Amino acid sequence: MIEHRLTERMLSVINRALKRVEQKQAIDSFFVDLAVDFIRTYADRAHHGKEEEILFRKLESRNLSNADRQVMNELIEEHAFGRKITKALVDANLQNRNGNGSALASVTAQLRTLVEYYPKHIEKEDNVFFPASRSYMTDDEDQTMLAEFIEFDRKMIHEKYNAIVRSLEHD
Ligand SMILES: [Fe+2]
Ligand SMILES: [Fe+2]
Q1: Cβ atoms of residues 160 and 41 within 8 Å
Q2: Which of 28, 45, 116, 165 is most buried, taking the most CB atoms under 10 A from its CB?
Q3: CA of 16 to the centre of ligand 2 (A)
Q4: Which ligand has the minimum distance to the alpha carbon of residue 52?
């Protein structure tokens, strides 16, 4: 939930940028790069990574109620939807940067989709799924999971920059 708060701040920044686009009919592609990096590295890898690979995986083996299991599946689908939109955003940003005039509309459409759907995802986790998921775990299991989260985060920076060097080596 702490991570949701930073994500909300970034969504506000994106919203502000979208308002400026309306006036200027242009968007800074470096800003979009930064937004994509935030979404992919922080919101998707660091945050959804911990949800999917640690929390959801643990809950998978528990006797979840049908309603809770359905919400968990929705959350997983929403993560996948976010990845699809982000991929479209990256493609549109590249085209816009290369001077394709019609790509601006696609850049803003993808950004708008992200700022509209994601707050609902956060709300569903904060107010519905996370409170419900607590009942399937003991306090000890909670603490173990917290330690796993910390270990996951510790590895992330190395994973990210290893991947960057690898991709540059094959350029
Ligand atoms: Fe999520
Ligand atoms: Fe989340």
Answers
A1: yes
A2: 45
A3: 22
A4: 1
Q: Is 16 exposed, middle or buried (0-12, 13-18, 19+ CB in 10 A)?
A: exposed
Question: What is the per-residue pLDDT across 65-110, written as a single tens digit (0 to 9) for each?
Answer: 999 999 999 999 999 999 999 999 999 999 999 999 899 999 999 9
Distance 171 CA to ligand 1 centre (A): 33
DSSP state of 137: S
The C-alpha atoms of residue 107 and residue 90 are separated, in whole angstroms, by 8
Euclidean distance between CA atoms 167 and 161, whole angstroms? 10
36-57 pLDDT per residue, tens: 999 999 999 999 999 999 999 9
Q: How far is the CA of 82 from the centre of ligand 2 (A)?
A: 12
What is each CA distance from 77 to 63, 71, 102, in whole angstroms? 21, 10, 29
Task: Give CA–CA dist 29/35, Å, rounded.
Answer: 10
Asked if 122 and 44 count as a contact pair (C-beta separation under 8 A), the reply is no
